[in-house]
Amino acid sequence: MKSANQNERGFISFSVILGLALIVATVFSAIRVLPPYIANYQFQDYIDNTARTATYNTISEADLKKEIMARARQLGITLTDRQLEVHKVRGGAVSIKSTYDVPVDLIARQVVLHFEPAAGNQNIVSR
């Protein structure tokens, strides 16, 4: 009788184990890294819309900054006053800039993601 090879006896090859470990590591990394990118995308979208609407209404820089800080907190983004710059010029131009870091723990090492969302708009009918 011929002897059955290892695969036929139920052994898992090293390449299968390595492949599964790679898939698990990729999924784990994606679960840890994607949420800060999604929050940044949502924050960028919010400040784009805010810059557009603030151009044509009478909201002050301070109130605008408070609204943006509140939205950042809702998204889980920790911002200080120094990390957010809001400028509104009398003619209607609005500029919003922010810089923040998000540390992500990947068990083997910690990665710091750096984000710099910014938006601006100018009144096309300036007086």
Give structural notes.
This protein starts with 13 loop residues before the first helix and ends in a 6-residue tail after the last strand. The protein is elongated. The mean pLDDT is 87. A hairpin with a 4-residue loop joins β3 (100-105) and β4. It has a domain at 35-121. Helices cover 44% and strands 20% of the residues. It has 127 residues and is of the alpha+beta class.
Question: Topology, please?
Answer:
Elements: H1 14-55, H2 61-74, E1 84-88, E2 94-98, E3 100-105, E4 110-115, E5 118-121
Antiparallel strand pairs: 1-2, 2-5, 3-4
Strand-and-helix sequence, N→C? HHEEEEE
Most strands sheet? 3 strands, antiparallel
Can you list the strand order of the major beta sheet? 1-2-5
**Residue share in helix:** 40-55%
Termini separation (Å)? Answer: 97 Å
List segments where confidence is low: pLDDT < 50 over at least 5 consecutive residues: none
Global geometry: elongated
- Mean model confidence by pLDDT: 87
**SSE-based structural type:** alpha+beta
Number of helices: 2
